[in-house]
Prior knowledge:
Blueprint lengths: L1 E5 L5 H12 L2 H4 L5 E2 L9 E5 L2 H10 L5 E10 L3 H9 L13 E7 L7 H20 L12 E7 L3 E7 L21 H11 L7 E3 L6 H10 L17 H7 L17 H20 L7 E5 L2 H13 L8 E3 L14 E4 L52 H17 L4 E6 L4 H5 L5 E7 L2 E9 L6
Amino acid sequence: xxxxxxxxxxxEAPLANELLQIAQRPEVLALGKSKIDPAPLNLTGGIGxxxxxxxxxxxxxxxxxxxxxxLKMGExxxxxxxxxxxxxxxxxxxxWFSPSQTMRVDLTAQRSPLKSLNFATLxxxxxxxxxxxxxxxxxxxxxTANPDIRIQAxxxxxxxxxxxxxxxxxxFKRGWxxxxxEAPLKENxxxxxxxxxxxxxxxxxxDPMCGSGTFLIEAAQIAxxxxxxxxxxxxxxxxxxxxxxxxxxxxxxxxxxxxxxxSASLExxxxxxxxxxxxxxxxxxxxxPLLISGGDINEQLITIAKLNWQRxxxxxxxxxxxxxxxxxxxxxxxxxxxxxxxxxxxxxxIKGGRGQAKSSATEDVYSFGEAEIQTAPPGRxxxxxxxxxxxxxxxxxxLDQFSKRLKDLFSGWQVFVLTADMGFPGHLRMKESxxxxxxxxxxxxxxxxxxxxxxxx
Length: 457
């Protein structure tokens, strides 16, 4: 089978490395041969893979960077909507799901000449419904909110490709986030950034502006060998009736569990074996020391971060506290990694919960390669891009003081900053050693790396 593993733009290289590691796991090797495409030179929004349904299950369970795992059903050249209809009508959907299941069709496009992408989406849906009605005598219903089966179409200028989604809910929805601060970082983007820093569990990791704790929780799960899909796979029993209700929604599992081949005893055994191998790793890593710490000036966000830590089934209490970033100190004599996503000023003025920790009501909209176009809400949020624009003078003073503290106290450390402000190094009065283009949804960002050296007297 041919798969396409979707990721945030800019994370193709770490995703390719991660997929190679997953494919080399003993329990995955036992499922058959696989092939991972090399990382592309440009932003493709994902990596091509060849392998079994078992490999797709393993990627869904283990990949921290992937957004979705798509199973390629077919592709063809097209010039009009009827060409797309013929492709969809000719594919064996009945081998993968039944008319009694609900479905949803999503479509994305790059330079497509079609006038209406909505009409093209409708023709794909019609083709699948018509085929199942002809072969099975009944048609599936459409459910855009909570479908059993998700079908993804992607159009280029001349070619259409149809996929079955084996993930269901996007993979960045780990299942532990129930509360979040303003514009939270998606979990898979955070995990990809951690991979880009080169951080290992033996190194200290400090996030001085941790918000709802995404970087810290992802790092802790990496250190403790907890796969990203652990909650969705049911590794941890729900602690309350509220959690059980939640599991019937977002935490109901993965898309491949609704596919016909999964109901075969062999695939169910393969899935059980993948989960058992992962559970053994978790048990073996249970006592791994966590050199992970963080802080935030917003007391409400610290509370949210601690709750998220508990929902992620991480041990004990996190080393997170309410603190001004200007007061941070090294958490260890050993040099490590400082990693943060600055809030651009607004959150810096919130102390002791006097401000409101905002939660996003915006529903996630998936698109191929995460290249959707969204309109910005009225007003300016704290994480909108500055694009080398002038910054608030008070925030400029803060950055100058913060830079001095880094230089004074964190000699030998590496500092990584994700920001949409391309002029951030100048505001920080430091020269970056590397900048990596990344996309936080549709928003173009940079991951800046700074090397902290001892100040000259």
